[in-house]
What we know:
CATH architecture of the largest domain in chain A: Alpha-Beta Complex
Oligomer: homodimer
Number of strands of chain A: 28
Largest sheet of chain A: 6 strands, mixed
CATH topology of the largest domain in chain A: Creatine Amidinohydrolase
Amino acid sequence: MHPTTPLGALRALMQARGLDGLLVPRADAHQSEDCAPHDNKLAWLTGFTGSAGLALVLADRALLFVDGRYQVQVQHQVDTTAFAVHHLHNEPVAQWIDNHLPPGQRIGFEPMLMTNSQYEALRASHCQPVALDDDPFDAVWHDRPAAPCGVITEMPDEIAGESSADKRQRVAAALREAGVDYLAVTLPDNIAWLLNVRGSDVAMNPVPHSFLLINQQGDVEWFVAQEKLAQLAPEVTRNITLSAPGAFLTRCRACAAGNVIALDADFSPVALRFAVEQAGGSVRWQSDPITWMKALKNPVELEGYRASHREDGAAWVNFLAWLHHEAPLRDAAGDPITELEAQQKQLAFRQQRETFIEPSFNTISAAGSNAAMCHYHASPETNKPLTRSEFYLNDSGGQYVNGTTDATRTLAFGPLTAARRLHYTAVLKGFLALITLPFPNGTCGHQLDAVARRPLWELGLDFDHGTGHGVGHRMLIHEQPQRIAKKVNPWPLLPGSIMTIEPGYYLADQYGIRIENQVEVVEGAPGFCRFSTLTLIPIDLNQVETGLLSAQEKAWIDDYHQQVRDTLAPLVNSDARAWLFAATAPLRVQTGAQA
Amino acid sequence: MHPTTPLGALRALMQARGLDGLLVPRADAHQSEDCAPHDNKLAWLTGFTGSAGLALVLADRALLFVDGRYQVQVQHQVDTTAFAVHHLHNEPVAQWIDNHLPPGQRIGFEPMLMTNSQYEALRASHCQPVALDDDPFDAVWHDRPAAPCGVITEMPDEIAGESSADKRQRVAAALREAGVDYLAVTLPDNIAWLLNVRGSDVAMNPVPHSFLLINQQGDVEWFVAQEKLAQLAPEVTRNITLSAPGAFLTRCRACAAGNVIALDADFSPVALRFAVEQAGGSVRWQSDPITWMKALKNPVELEGYRASHREDGAAWVNFLAWLHHEAPLRDAAGDPITELEAQQKQLAFRQQRETFIEPSFNTISAAGSNAAMCHYHASPETNKPLTRSEFYLNDSGGQYVNGTTDATRTLAFGPLTAARRLHYTAVLKGFLALITLPFPNGTCGHQLDAVARRPLWELGLDFDHGTGHGVGHRMLIHEQPQRIAKKVNPWPLLPGSIMTIEPGYYLADQYGIRIENQVEVVEGAPGFCRFSTLTLIPIDLNQVETGLLSAQEKAWIDDYHQQVRDTLAPLVNSDARAWLFAATAPLRVQTGAQA
Lengths: 595, 595
């Protein structure tokens, strides 16, 4: 076979190294949700661009494992004559190996790209896993993009709310208490939080790719490309030992001898375990303690979220006022607004805000049936018009200097069918049920998830995504560890936690509905917590069957809209103010006007 | 020290065997919830009669570990100068050993009374666990009650709904599929289900203490005291190899050589692991597959539950009609009904039902402040009067020939305070919220638990017990594995599951409220399940703030009461029928009468 394709090149490489197979995961060394082009080996190999997946290349065949979300997408992107598509969870790769390969096959893998549990699953199969101690793709991926080299900037203490020195002492105390000598940190947002810096290696992921070691005295060694530090004031790295990322494993080995090294049980590369064990050290598997410190925001961070939500709310209202005025007119005139046009206009309104930096994630601007795909992003090929007969769903947010926003509104520009109104009302009722729920201290997200689904369940419907996720502070839009979802999540929602609440409903090829607010968890009655809303954007009530709302639900909506109106009226453009007042009028006024 | 006390006797024994300590758990070899007197070593040693606990006896001191439920009770029952009381979960015994004993202490334990995870926790501590291969208590517990020898009876196929032969073939198929050679069964209800028998070793626990081995061909070896089989038709044991319980470990060892033996990960004694490993066999830790087969009831069993609930409902109505007539009169006359009298009267009404066998658990008949203790049982010393100014809570059930019942009603015989009415209404609303909830296939109890708590949470209140448990078929009142509770339970609620729904509220030293129905899980809309009620007992509406009920809640109550009325009217005593009609009248009639 002549190695003109990536697949052919990998097979030649396998042969040269005596491997029967090679695993190619969609992963970088940080287990990032978004991958830099340099790290996206799976996309290079297969063409598949989804956010999770794994290829197994064998001499005579190749397999691509993707999860349920991507079964359709993969058919469009991948040459399925070269790659047989399998389900990532129904028959995981280790199980497939046991079922279909003879024992003892030598399967290569990169231990910097694999977590410990992934490795253990592979090891429990009857293949012989072969750890590669280099990156074999450098030799065969000729037009490989350069490793990202995003500039790192300081997050000032007055916005972070706590100095890096104080954070390091908190971590050091946690290590002393746990009897751990070193903590090895590979999660980019944990490093960004600890050092009060932000990065720019991957678009809309303002965290630096790097590694870090911290010991019981709070001494920090940072393994980061020197070039990324060019714009950073020297004070930031004054008490930090700087090394190249390539020195990280060697240094872990050196630290490990006779010592206890804490590794993140879910995210650390198994290469770290190998390094520690080779050096005679012992691994303490735990959650990186920084994850939890970072998750409970301090008062300065919380005030930053609130301020950025006021700015984002004003941008939303300016956008919505424009949209509600223009969309029906343009549709009637036969020149409808498109998804991409709406998205660009919204960005322009955000850019008017002084503290806005960039979108916090890829905007979902989805009209009609496009919104039925939860992960849709508009492109020139898919760009649909916003019409008076279909929902338009917008899920977007911004990075502001002092916080991060994420919200979804589903809008209509004319009367919709009874089914659409019923489903919109059910999503709204689920949203209201959860956002108004008090819950005892120590409650976890999986205990609350059903509350947001009940109105849909009563219609025999459901939605196939989580109900809420954490949001970083000027950081990742999906922040660990808390989550509100069906799946068990052991981390309680405590005061200072930032979450989204975003139930939805999706009817394939027809429409999608989602309503999302960002909230902070605050203290409630003694022993209880509650959600306090951060998002300040009117909820479209035109499609609500108000007869299905309880008095309490109507009261919450009216209170919320009054808060939105009072807060945003001074901040929005003058030509948006009338719309804001109409959109936030009490329900009896709105439904009176409708009748 | 002269061994006149149990503690002294144990210390002498420890010295004779070279032990520094001895663990005495509240456990039998089946990890039963209720212990036979013969097995209750902890009660003999300490006086403590709670259902969970553990003593650690050392030469110079002794400790008793009990959980939060029992911190008060233990003070009444135990000589705390002899036994220092510790918290079972806050500082588990293995952690206490690490914190307070020097390393290497020889701590004796009985491996038939300890699960594998309990053993692993002990082994991870720095003591030296010493497994005792006999029961050391025989030598020192001179007035020890005999081992239970309850007669075993047949559960006819026409009531069980499936022959034992068919069940054994299903288990054998599961073993073949799992690649397991033998399954060792120690759970009494799993043995009872598999063999279609019932036992009587512990009061109100109609399951036999015994052990069982089954192989891939479905061959069964039953390790059971011969005396228990005297009344059993020979057909029942025809294809079964019978041995004495004492032969079980030896036989496990013989089976284990070169074989895979499945042990229940949560309940098997660690002695089985030792036996398998000593023989060179390998242990497959899993849930006993019988547990899940047993949990999904067949149509005949389900019809049996329904029939037994009709009988139990009739007994309840006869009792409630009598009680509602007599209680206020007797209170006014200065000769109030007492908890014990009510309990006896209720039993008499149950005994009028032809298919009634015995109570399915210790009745909770609790007036006023006694009901604030969730696990209260009336005694001559605590026996309170039923008055017109306080709630009376009754939680009771029956074993019927074809099913098992469990229900709670909270009653009042006069107007109560606004706070009591509010709390009663909140408990009722939580009960209604859960019993009316449809949920997708695969949903687990921990996902639904909050639904029953929300009305209490909205008042800043909660209750400190699970919301629902499984109920065996003519078997244990608390049946594994499903559970509706805050704690994660990985077993989904599927059609054929039998559960209780029993939210409550308890104000210490004042009152307790609980409303409990037993339900079966049935298919709902496509892809969904729902609860169908089994319990047929009017819900006391006199204390409900009906203004706080939604139209849907009222409709459910009226529908339910109509079902109760229609089903039970032909079954109750003639003098109870008028009360039944009044108690099940539609809400607008009842509240009209009240107003």
